[in-house]
């Protein structure tokens, strides 16, 4: 396998309630699973190919729980990436050069029968993990906004984190509120549902823990 590493702030939104039952080995809130994830690579490489400074988005959808399969996914790669960088990011996002079931990307690809052709687009991405805020824009394809959960009783911000010492995606994630519209091969219409912020650190063996 080609050795690789990605590190950077990740943000995602799915159609489940704020607690996202998948994180607790339970069934999706509405029976199905759909959403997206974006990462900015602050530090990364794929063999000799440098990936630092690039961004990538993954959109996905399953008719039931992820583990039942029959899903679909599509990658959006930063248009600034050259051909070698595009191929490298796609290999990582498709779970290639990765130990079996070591990353969530490996699982997503294994559980998806349909892989739509990748898009190469400008990706605007602003994120603050500590504040649980994010904005993502892929012109003509998708828009997403993330914000803190607010108490319906007081209106105050409510902070919740998920700690997964043996997870395949992150160690600790901040949880918030998110809304996303996407109108490409995978259509999303998510409103005030599960938002996730985390520092992603992964290689072909899974999450890299300090």
Shape: globular
Distance between the termini: 23 Å
How would you characterize the largest beta sheet? 15 strands, mixed
How much β-strand is present in the residues?
A: over 45%
Rg from alpha-carbon coordinates: 16 Å
CATH architecture descriptor name: Beta Barrel
CATH domain class name: Mainly Beta
**Poorly predicted sequence stretches spanning 5 or more consecutive residues:** none
Our count of helices gives 2
CATH-derived topology: Acetoacetate decarboxylase-like
Tally the structural domains: 1
What series of H and E elements makes up the topology? Answer: EEEEEEHHEEEEEEEEEEE
- What percent of the residues sit in helical stretches (DSSP H or I)? under 10%
Structural class by SSE content: mainly beta
Number of strands: 17
Mean pLDDT: 97
What would you say about this model in short?
The protein is mainly beta and 210 residues long. Helices cover 9% and strands 50% of the residues.
């Amino acid at each position: 396998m080609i050795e690789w590493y990605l590190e950077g702030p990740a943000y995602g939104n799915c159609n489940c309630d704020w607690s996202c039952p998948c994180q607790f080995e339970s069934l999706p809130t509405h029976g199905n699973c759909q959403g997206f994830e974006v990462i900015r690579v602050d530090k990364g490489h794929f063999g000799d190919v440098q990936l630092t400074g690039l961004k990538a988005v993954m959109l996905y959808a399953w008719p039931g729980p992820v583990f039942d399969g029959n899903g679909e996914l599509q990658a959006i790669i930063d248009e600034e990436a050259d051909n070698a960088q595009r191929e490298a990011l796609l290999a990582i996002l498709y779970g290639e050069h990765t130990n079996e079931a070591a990353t969530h990307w490996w699982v997503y690809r294994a559980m998806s029968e349909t892989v739509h052709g990748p898009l190469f687009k400008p990706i605007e991405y602003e994120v603050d993990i500590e504040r649980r805020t994010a904005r993502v824009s892929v012109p003509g394809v998708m828009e997403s906004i993330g914000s803190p959960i607010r108490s319906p009783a007081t209106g105050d911000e409510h902070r919740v984190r998920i700690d997964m010492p043996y997870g395949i995606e992150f160690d600790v994630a901040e949880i918030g509120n998110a809304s996303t519209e996407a109108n490409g091969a995978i259509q999303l219409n998510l409103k005030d549902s599960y938002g996730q912020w985390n520092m992603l650190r992964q290689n072909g063996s899974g999450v890299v823990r300090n």
